Amino acid sequence: MNIKPLVITFSLLLMSGSALADDDCDDPIAGWQPRENLRQKLEAEGWKVFRIKVDDGCYEVKGRDPEGRRAEAEYSPATFELRGMELEDDDDDDDDDDDDDDYRGKSGNDSKSINKEQAPRKGIITGRPTVTVE
Amino acid sequence: MKNILFALGLATAMALPAYAQAREVTFTTQLSNYGGDGAYLALYLTDADGQYQGTLWIAGQKSKYYKHLRGWARGSGMNKAEYDGLTGASVTSGRTQNVTLELDDALIDAGYQVRVDTAVEDMRDNRSDVVAPLTTEGSGKSVAGRGYVQSFVYNLK
User: Which of B83, B95, B102 shows the shortest C-beta gap to A134?
Assistant: First the structure.
């Protein structure tokens, strides 16, 4: 028995489930579940979800995975099947409330938006600069 | 001279914190159309020898890239206490950023320089893209940058 066509067919069948189209996800829009559902599902799993947007036909989630690592993950909008995940660097110290809380010890405040009375900055400026871009 | 100035400044700050003479300054940085991602900028002061004195503003939110603002990074040690509350978004190619702040009077006409380091992802880093003496005479006088900065000017009120 010639096994080659069988191997090729089998491979094609396997591949057909993957993203061969231009979009990473190809769920028909009629079947999409609301983003809120995905958010709730992930938060129940231990994620902290920063935002969900649509990218290349998928829901792209940005947040912290259950292990506390910053990550971006793509899900099929209809089935919520995980299509891909990318962890961001550990030393990514973004403008995130948690980082400041950890730094100061769970003050519970967003230290960046509050006046500097409680923790004077070391430096040459008093107060907060005003910045505009045109 | 610098020691006296520093001591004077310190004494003033300690004795009358609410009355320390401060001046409003606006630093305007115009970027050229370099055609890349948003630029990270470090605006900071040095003495006449280029020794870091303090941070004015950091444009760019991801601290993992701050090491590319090389002069500032070395001087400040990228110590969070140096730039806490002094960060904002990176600046897009071709745009102009205005930073207005209160600066201690004692820093003007005292031999200090304003410097701007710049960096763009996947493009070069520019230590000291701009170097400009901080003087009343220099107020309003535009200078050219060496990298992504097309022109830089500060205005003392």
Answer: B95
